[in-house]
Design a protein that fits this description.
By secondary structure, the protein is mainly alpha-helical. It is built from 46 helices and seven strands.
Length: about 900
């Protein structure tokens, strides 16, 4: 348990228990009493007793401590000796017989054994008398280890302290108070820490713990404070680098082992054998357990463990379940290595129909190098990889490497483990160590792919990673084999490197390598790179394949496929089709699943959230993503989330923040050749420029992404700034450039790629059209089927339309568009655009509802709001009364209450105060 804590407030997650115990001490100081504290081993009972005792002592209470110990459990009155020795000087205040009884019990005097009732009464009177001078608290810990005589006396005393200023506070393991009679006494049950407190305690004590280990410790500890404090230390002592990944059953520390293992050791040998077999098999299936146990053991042998509440049998699921993961760990800790190997062999023998579990058990049972077992482990790793469990894959491949008879086989398997670890965003140091172990396979594609990913995560230059990959692919023995997994993995890695470079020339080597593949490139690889690398040229032709794949994505269980399809959906604006599977990956990652999968899923959902106006969620996910990058040592990908933060700051009018984030991205990316990060940063700068009305800067930043009149090759973000560029060009009198850009949008068929791009393309055409043709094009943009799905884009188009109408002196029509734009911007929190719409509305002859107006409207009751709307529409009080079936006097009274709420004094101001859309 935790060390004694002087300040109860420092106990993590125990505010409620601390407050309860403080109240108990206060009651004791006034009127005495007793309280029992129960809970599982290691749950923190001793820490709470320590904190309570210290708090009581600091408030002037005398504290007596008793701790039950195993070696004193057979010594009669040993507990009383601990409790009463400090009060020996006060024995003279008792009657002679009572004092003699206590002295004999404490061994101070010799004589016949004292009468039990006499002794109980004497101890009670001694404690009550001492408390008459100063409040007194007797604290008993580990009550089950109290000797029988002391437990009987103290059970008697506990019921006879009310009315004094003496209290008794006793702690014991749930369901095991030993000889102490707990019946009828008030009890505080100490529960495990909740999830938030458990994370806080673990992070506070072990801030450098890697995410995967943290999740495993949290899962095993299940809120047990002692386990949270000891498991990381025990792991640190037993783990030896990345080729020894986390064991399936975590080792116990010394104190945990003392608490839990003693219960296991006391069981019959047959029971321990069955428990060990169950502990080593993750399924808990009774039929598997029975088959693996052999003829010498029966399931009935589990009965002693059931009675001691170590396991429970679920008859409906035909499973044996350990009541706490720590019990499972204790069972393994109490076994010998030979016993564990024999259990693994027995389990492997009965799991012939489950290749993955069979391979793992064989790997654990095998001591000598064995290629057959290594091959089975490698095959199992392939199956597990499809589920995205990177940690398990690395573990299986490392074990396969350990059992490989040849040095080449060991190096090859370690190289693949390194690639999987890098892809799964394992610790950089761990991946580097795996690569070091695989140095003999330095020319293998898995080795080079892992090295390239490690280079990116280590802030290396993109060009270096590109050269490594291209060189290895060129000299690969089978450069055209589309079935070669290592080659395909290398091509995926090369595609990532090309994308982050932001330069078309780097894609040439990739396209050449994929063109060689026979019989043909993997379908998913060609789809994703076609949609993600240069969608302006290749995307439309690939849309039928993309739509067909997205129609089935909800059934997809392979996380890699889900995320690759999400990547393909980015610039086709179809991320909504992948949201549910992406959220599965995020939730899985939060629960300890692969970090890179969670990271990329967060990126994808952020993009969709921004376009669909879910800006609050986008901000939360961007912050989560940045935190994950720091936590997992994947700082390379932090720019994705700074990009989203910069975008959100720009549209919300936080221009200094947006520019600072963009500048950070550009400064970081330039030295590393990450051109795409620069492009993303410029996108944020474009929006900040437009928000501030600096159209010249907006034009310069937009054309730095893609020059006017072109859609830059392999710069897909050029599609996202088309309207920005055209608007900035028009505003800076670059009509020719604006028209050229609109022309290229039409020529490349951008409108066919995405419903959002169709809206933007129509708006761009409207911006450069003459006054008589513009309204039709704006209306076309706003009436496209999915216009409402993109609230910020649609509101911007309405604002541009309203501005154009106002300049054409169509004030009434302009106000309609400007009011809708203002409402949308206000709802989104797009402050600079809302202000611009408000200015245009005023110029068009109508005031707008301010934020103060909106707050006033929110204070109106439903009936007041209805009366206000009717009055704003021009109805008289009598007409409103007839419509609502009330008296004109009632309408007048309501209006009298409505005016101050809205901050107005005239009926004519109602329309502006509640907004014309309400009227």
């Amino acid at each position: 348990m935790e060390q004694p804590v002087a300040e109860p407030e420092k106990l993590v997650g125990r505010l409620q228990e601390v407050d309860f115990l403080r109240q108990f001490v206060h009651r004791v100081q006034m009127n005495g009493g007793a309280l029992l504290v129960s809970g599982d081993p290691g749950v923190g009972k001793t820490a709470l007793l320590d904190a309570t005792a210290e708090a009581a002592r600091s408030s002037g209470t005398t504290v007596l401590r008793v701790t039950g110990t195993e070696f004193e459990a057979e010594v009669s009155h040993a507990g009383l000796h601990q409790a009463l020795l400090p009060l020996v000087d006060q024995l003279d205040e008792l009657g002679d017989e009572q004092a003699a009884a206590v002295r004999v019990a404490l061994g101070i005097e010799t004589g016949p054994a004292p009468d039990r009732l006499l002794l109980c009464g004497a101890v009670t009177m001694l404690l009550r008398g001492a408390a008459a001078r100063t409040p007194l608290l007797l604290v008993l810990d580990d009550v089950p280890w109290l000797d029988r005589a002391s437990a009987v006396v103290l059970s008697f005393v506990a019921r006879r302290l009310v009315g004094s200023r003496a209290g008794l506070l006793a702690a014991f393991r749930t369901g095991s108070a030993g000889y102490f009679d707990a019946s009828g006494l008030p009890e505080l049950t100490v529960r495990p820490l909740d999830d938030e407190a458990a994370v806080h305690l673990l992070t506070e004590r072990f801030p450098g713990l890697d995410p995967q280990t943290r999740v495993r410790v949290l899962d095993t500890a299940q809120g047990n404070p002692l386990a949270l404090l000891e498991l990381p230390q025990a792991l640190e002592e037993t783990r030896r680098g990345p080729t020894r990944p986390l064991p399936r059953v975590l080792p116990l520390g010394q104190r945990l082992q003392r608490l839990f293992a003693s219960r296991v050791a006391a069981l019959p040998a047959a029971t321990r054998h069955l428990l060990l077999t169950a502990a080593l098999d993750s399924g808990g299936d009774l039929s598997v357990l029975e088959a693996a146990a052999g003829d010498d053991h029966r399931l009935d042998d589990l009965a002693p463990a059931e009675r001691d509440q170590l396991v429970r049998i679920e008859t409906d699921g035909h499973r044996v379940v350990f009541r706490h993961p720590l019990i499972r760990s204790a069972v393994v800790a109490e076994s010998t290595s030979d016993e564990r190997r024999r259990a693994h062999r027995a389990l492997a023998a009965v799991l012939a129909q489950d290749p993955e579990r069979r391979a793992w058990h064989l790997g654990e049972a095998t001591v000598e190098r064995d290629e057959e077992v290594a091959e089975q482990l490698e095959a199992a790793a392939r199956h597990v990889l499809a589920r995205g469990d990177y940690q398990a894959v690395v573990s299986l491949l490392c074990r396969a490497a350990d059992l490989s008879p040849s040095a080449d086989g060991r190096a090859r398997r370690l190289a693949e483990a390194a690639y999987v670890a890098a892809e799964g965003m394992a610790e950089t140091s761990g991946t580097a160590e795996l690569l070091e172990g695989a140095r003999q396979a330095h020319s293998s594609l898995n080795y080079v792919s892992a090295a390239a990913l490690l280079l990116l995560d280590s802030d290396g230059h993109v060009d270096t990673a590109h050269r490594l990959l291209v060189g290895a692919i060129e000299v690969h023995p089978h450069p055209a084999d589309a079935q070669d997994t290592s080659l395909v993995n290398a091509l995926w890695t090369l595609a990532l490197v090309c994308f982050v470079s932001g330069r078309a020339e780097l894609w040439t080597a990739f396209h050449s390598a994929t063109a060689r593949l026979a019989p043909q490139p993997p379908a998913l690889l060609s789809l994703v790179t076609g949609m993600f690398a240069d969608p302006a040229r290749d995307g439309v032709a690939l849309l039928p394949r993309l739509d067909a794949a997205l129609a089935m994505v909800h059934r997809e269980n392979d996380p890699s496929t889900v995320q690759n399809l999400a990547a393909a959906a980015w610039y086709a604006d179809r991320l909504a089709d992948v949201r549910e599977p992406l959220w599965r990956l995020i939730r899985s990652g939060r629960a300890g699943g692969p970090g890179r999968r969670r990271l990329v899923a967060l990126m994808d959902v952020c993009v969709d959230d921004f376009h669909r106006g879910a800006w609050a969620e986008a901000a939360e996910l961007a912050a989560e993503g940045l935190g994950l990058c720091e936590e997992a040592g994947a700082r390379f990908f932090g720019w994705y989330f700074r990009y989203h933060q910069a975008l959100l700051a720009a549209v919300r009018g936080e221009f200094a923040t947006s520019r600072s984030l963009a500048d950070q991205m550009i400064g970081w990316a330039g030295a590393r050749g990450v051109g795409t990060a620069v492009t993303y940063a410029r996108h944020a700068l474009v929006l900040a420029d437009l928000g501030e009305g600096d159209f010249e800067s907006a034009y310069q930043n937009a054309t730095a992404i893609s020059p006017a009149g072109t859609l830059a090759s392999h710069v897909p973000h050029a599609l996202w700034v088309v309207m920005d560029l055209v608007e900035a060009a028009v505003r800076t009198d670059r009509t020719t450039e604006a028209e050229q850009h609109v022309r290229v949008l039409d020529e490349t068929g951008v409108a066919d790629l995405s419903p959002r791009l169709a809206i933007l393309a129509a708006a761009c055409a409207a911006l450069v059209a003459p006054d008589e043709a513009a309204p039709k094009l704006f209306e076309q943009a706003l009436t496209l089927p999915t216009a409402d799905a993109w609230p910020f884009d649609t509101a911007r188009i309405r604002l541009l339309y309203g501005e154009r109408l106002r300049r054409s002196r169509a004030a009434t029509e302009a106000r309609v568009q400007l009011r809708l734009a203002h409402t949308a911007f206000d709802k989104l929190g797009a402050v600079p655009w809302a202000a611009r719409a408000e200015r245009e509305l005023r110029a068009a002859g109508q005031a707008t509802r301010t934020a103060a107006d909106a707050r006033g409207v929110a204070t109106l009751t439903p009936q007041e709001l209805e009366i206000a709307r009717l009055a704003a529409s021009g109805l008289s009080n009598k007409q409103i009364a007839e419509r609502l079936y009330v008296s004109p006097r009632t309408v007048s009274t309501h209006l009298y209450q409505i005016f101050p709420k809205l901050g107005i004094t005239r009926r004519a101001a109602l329309r502006d105060a509640i907004g014309s859309d309400e009227a």
